């Protein structure tokens, strides 16, 4: 039997070990663990029911809704959150983040981390998505202030390169 | 004039932009103070009940629980407009009403403690319907409001009473009575639920972190609640409000009371369920109205009762009514009114401040009655219908087909801006681009309308006022069905060109004609009408210049080139 007393995760490139029953309980969601144990508050919880996409993170390269994922299911996996996008050495923003700023692709910003993570996962898999594919990928991310159009512009600008480069 | 402004006419990056895209922006739930406790609320399962007995001993005995408060322990100050709602009461008035508060080390323990509170209710009959609620013998929500009617506040516009309605009805060709509704209680539901962290720095100073866009209003509303203690409110990043976080008084009150009891900071952060079921909703309402109308469509008198359902409590009901009474007079021109409002409490969830309250509720309610009045009067003036190109292609065309089929004599004006401006500039069948962004055949409106049998079709340029006026006039004079297709870019997409217009104050006699355009650039101040050159689109429009009978409006030479999209 594998060791089920602790969970090993790689979070934004750093290893972390969580003791079940001490650090976390088996019913903790990944969103709760990220926010409450690891202090990664950029991942937002809105509906907490897998409907709104605000809590989206990248787990082993794929987007997941961290409010619908149990931390104990993630043993040995690699998690990327919004905090993992900046260059850790230089502090330089990821081109997506810069493009979201330049296109003001948000109003209140509560859904923005989830949206950026969704797009990041899409571009990792498909560096040149069509507008249709971007829309498809973002169909699970709700934005109540209708910034979707600016989001599309921001993402398109990154795909087209230019000042956002690769 | 060169643009020497530092900010006007220039893009300004959002100050919080970097924090938002890196996840560092601190929303309410991202703020954690040392020694902070989590507060939770026990909510009523019943719509209307007296609390006969409440036993918190098991909850209070739970380790890591620091306070359990009931109506016996908290301030008895009342809030709402007018003041009537207690933070916690001996009585619950809707499913989700607060019964008790718990502060504990963690949310899980607080939830567990909430479960351990024993409450014995004396269930009472509930009323939900606004007209039932005001009848005699109905369940009474508040002792001070007989028949569930909140008395009017005399300083506010609560009724529309003017002119002489008897004379108005005497002049009317037809009189119709009817009932209109706006019965749902929409919930604006921003993504971030309401939340507050509060602590008492000393017994006379309350500090609160609040997720709100209106910090001053929160503070001002909360002040009497805390016996005029000093308050220092700090706004966190606000994850959307849509009006609802203007007051926040229940979460502020809960956090402040728990903090007072525990002498520690307490965070109250609603779950989505609480946000959905127990937080400020938009009002609902019903109107029973009597309308007098002449055969030419002139409305001669409006009387009626506008009955507003504010649920179990009113955060701002009288203000919402005042907005409605004002807006309706803009939407419905009539010299004689006797429209009286009633603000009614029922056992539905309470309503509060929401974006743009009051007007749409009343206007949507009275609109069907006006429709019936016009039908009964057989208003035989030419009906002029205005529709956008996108909506015309989506659903307006069936109406036009029916008008042709039934030999209607309407004038239909299609505002053809080749976009769906209403919902955010989507493509539509007339733009030549599919929703997926591929090129496709654009449906042309002129052959389309001719094709279904409209003989009188004119196409005009929206910015050519003279031709547009002439086309509308000739259509109205003609006895046949006519369509006017008005071409022009959506004002959001109008390229900004140079030469904004300016008003020559010496020539302007302030006839206000240019103000009728509704152009946001044209401003009126006492003794002066002027054009805000940073908002004027200049040569792309020129409507005000065309309209001015005294040639007081002319281009201003400018080096400002602005942003073109």
Short description:
The complex is a heterodimer of chains A (166) and B (565). In chain A, 30% of the residues lie in helices and 14% in strands.
**Count of individual beta strands of chain B:** 26
**Distance between the terminal alpha carbons of chain B, to the nearest Å?**
23 Å
Helix content of chain B: 10-25%
Rg on CA atoms of chain B, Å: 29 Å
Instruction: State the shape of chain B.
Output: globular
Q: Count of DSSP helices of chain B?
A: 14
The interface involving the most residues is between: A-B, 43 and 32 residues
Task: Could you tell me the CATH topology label of the largest domain in chain B.
Answer: Aldehyde Oxidoreductase, domain 3
CATH architecture of the largest domain in chain B: Alpha-Beta Complex
Q: Structural class, from helix and strand content of chain A?
A: alpha+beta
For the biggest β-sheet of chain A, the strand order reads 2-1-5-3-4
Map the helices and strands:
The complex is a heterodimer of chains A (166) and B (565).
Chain A: E1 6-11, E2 14-19, H1 30-37, E3 56-59, E4 62-65, E5 77-80, H2 95-102, H3 112-125, H4 131-137, H5 148-159
Parallel strand pairs in A: 1-5
Antiparallel strand pairs in A: 1-2, 3-4, 3-5
Helix pairs in contact in A: 2-5
Chain B: H1 17-22, E1 37-43, E2 49-55, H2 57-61, E3 65-69, E4 78-79, E5 85-86, E6 91-92, E7 98-104, H3 107-116, E8 118-123, H4 130-133, E9 149-150, E10 159-162, H5 165-171, E11 174-182, E12 195-202, E13 205-210, H6 215-222, E14 230-235, H7 249-262, E15 266-269, H8 272-277, E16 284-293, E17 299-309, H9 317-331, E18 337-344, H10 359-377, E19 384-388, H11 389-405, E20 411-416, H12 445-451, E21 456-461, H13 465-477, E22 482-487, E23 501-503, E24 522-525, E25 528-531, H14 543-547, E26 553-555
What does this 3D model show about the protein?
The complex is a heterodimer of chains A (166) and B (565). Helices cover 30% and strands 14% of the residues of chain A. Chain A is built from five helices and five strands. Chain A has a five-stranded mixed sheet with strand order 2-1-5-3-4, covered by helices on one side. In chain A, a hairpin with a 2-residue loop joins β1 and β2. In chain A, α2 crosses α5. Chain A is globular and about 50 Å long. The model of chain A has no long low-confidence stretch (mean pLDDT 93). Chain B has 14 helices and 26 strands. In chain B, β13, α6 and β14 form a beta-alpha-beta unit. The longest helix of chain B has 19 residues. The C terminus of chain B is likely disordered. Classes of the chains: A alpha+beta (166), B alpha+beta (565). At the A-B interface, α2 and α3 of A face α1 of B.
């Amino acid at each position: 039997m594998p060791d089920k007393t602790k969970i090993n995760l790689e979070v934004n490139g750093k290893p972390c070990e969580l003791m079940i029953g001490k650090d976390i309980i088996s019913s903790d969601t990944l969103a709760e663990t990220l926010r409450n144990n690891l202090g990664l508050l950029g991942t937002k919880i809105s509906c907490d029911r897998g409907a709104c996409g605000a809590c989206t993170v990248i787990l082993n390269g794929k987007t997941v809704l961290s409010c619908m994922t149990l931390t104990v299911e993630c043993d040995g996996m690699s998690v990327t959150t919004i905090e993992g996008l900046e260059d850790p050495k230089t502090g330089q923003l990821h081109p997506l983040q810069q493009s979201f700023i330049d296109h003001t692709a948000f109003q209140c910003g509560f859904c923005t981390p989830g949206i950026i993570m969704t797009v990041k996962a899409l571009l990792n898999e498909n560096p040149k998505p069509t507008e249709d594919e971007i829309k498809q990928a973002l169909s699970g991310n709700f934005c109540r202030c209708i910034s979707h159009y600016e989001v599309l512009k921001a993402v398109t600008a990154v795909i087209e390169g230019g000042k956002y480069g690769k | 004039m060169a643009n020497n402004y530092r900010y006007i006419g220039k893009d300004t990056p959002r100050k919080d932009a970097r924090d938002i895209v890196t996840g560092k922006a601190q929303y309410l739930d991202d703020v954690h103070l040392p020694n902070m406790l989590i507060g939770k609320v026990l909510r009523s399962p019943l719509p209307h009940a007296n609390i006969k007995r409440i036993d918190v001993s098991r909850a209070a005995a739970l380790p890591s629980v620091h306070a359990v408060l009931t109506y016996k322990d908290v301030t008895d100050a009342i809030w709402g407009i007018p003041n009537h709602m207690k933070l916690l009461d001996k009585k619950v008035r809707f499913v989700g009403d607060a019964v008790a508060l718990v502060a504990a080390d963690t949310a899980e323990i607080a939830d567990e403690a909430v479960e351990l509170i024993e409450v014995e209710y004396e269930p009472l009959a509930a009323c939900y319907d606004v007209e039932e609620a005001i009848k005699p013998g109905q369940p009474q929500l508040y002792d001070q409001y007989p028949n569930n009617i909140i008395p009017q506040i005399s300083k506010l516009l609560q009724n529309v009473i003017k002119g002489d309605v008897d004379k108005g009805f005497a002049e009317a060709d037809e009189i119709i009575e009817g009932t209109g509704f706006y019965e749902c209680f929409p919930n604006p539901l921003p993504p971030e639920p309401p939340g507050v962290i509060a602590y008492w720095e000393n017994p006379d100073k309350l500090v609160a972190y609040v997720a709100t866009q209106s910090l001053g209003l929160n503070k001002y509303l909360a002040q009497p609640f805390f016996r005029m203690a000093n308050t220092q409110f700090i706004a966190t990043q606000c994850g959307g409000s849509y009006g609802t976080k203007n007051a926040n008084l229940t979460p502020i009150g809960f956090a402040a009371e728990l903090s007072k009891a525990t002498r520690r900071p307490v965070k109250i952060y609603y779950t989505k369920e609480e946000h959905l079921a127990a937080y400020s909703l938009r009002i609902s309402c019903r109107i029973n109205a009597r309308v007098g109308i002449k055969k030419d469509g002139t409305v001669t008198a409006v009387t009626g009762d506008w009955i507003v359902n504010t649920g179990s409590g009113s955060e701002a009901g009288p203000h919402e009514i005042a907005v409605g009474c004002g807006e309706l007079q803009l939407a419905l021109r009539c010299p004689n009114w006797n429209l009286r409002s009633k603000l009614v409490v029922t056992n539905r969830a309470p309503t509060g401040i929401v974006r743009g309250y009051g007007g749409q509720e009343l206007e949507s309610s009275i609109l069907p009655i006006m429709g019936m009045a016009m039908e009964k009067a057989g208003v035989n003036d030419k009906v002029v219908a205005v529709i956008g190109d996108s909506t015309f292609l989506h659903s307006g065309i069936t109406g036009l087909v029916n008008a042709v089929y039934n030999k209607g004599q309407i004038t239909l004006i299609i505002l053809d801006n080749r976009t769906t401006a209403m919902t955010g500039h989507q493509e539509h069948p007339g733009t030549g681009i599919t929703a997926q962004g591929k090129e496709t055949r654009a449906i042309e409106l002129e052959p389309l309308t001719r094709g279904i049998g409209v003989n009188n079709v004119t196409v005009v340029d929206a910015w050519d006022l003279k031709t547009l006026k002439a086309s509308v006039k000739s259509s109205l004079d003609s006895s046949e069905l006519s369509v006017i297709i008005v071409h022009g870019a959506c004002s959001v997409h109008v390229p900004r060109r140079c030469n904004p217009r300016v008003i020559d104050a010496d020539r302007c006699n302030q006839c206000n004609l240019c103000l009728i355009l509704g152009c946001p650039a044209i401003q009126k101040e006492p003794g002066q009408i002027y054009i805000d050159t940073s908002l004027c689109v200049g040569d792309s429009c020129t409507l005000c210049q065309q309209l001015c009978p005294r040639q007081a409006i002319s281009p201003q030479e400018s080096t400002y080139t602005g942003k073109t999209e």
